[in-house]
User: Fold this.
Amino acid sequence: MRTLKTIGEGLEKLVMYLVLFLMFVLVALVFIQVVLRYVFSSGMVWVEELDRYLFVWLMFLGIAMGVYKQRHIAITAVVDRLKGLTKGIQLLVHIITGSFFAVLCWQGIQFVEINMTGTAAVLPINLGIIYSIIPVSGFIALIFVLVLIASFKEEKR
Assistant:
């Protein structure tokens, strides 16, 4: 169990640094694009497309981080009424969340395979590489859910 928690913490740091790097690149590119548009009355077409892809990557990585930090949307109306079953419901939520991300990972792999032959509209980037964030974030979130379930079992003891 200790190893799984260590893996989760290390993966969290890796994802956090990747998110910070992507956010820095996104802000820098948008700033440069705004300056080019308003000061020089011209812009770079490829920046708009790259910004969109970076934003999608940030959102998928943010979803995985939200799962690990347990900051995702939760409707607590039912749980609040069932005070004695809170731990059981929390475990059930982890299992359902893990199942969702397992399906997302599996379907994401198939989606990437389908799009490996296409390229982006402006950038010479393979669409499979762009869409690879879907199974990658699903896998990361699945690991995070497993860490949460393992830590949940440790708390129960």
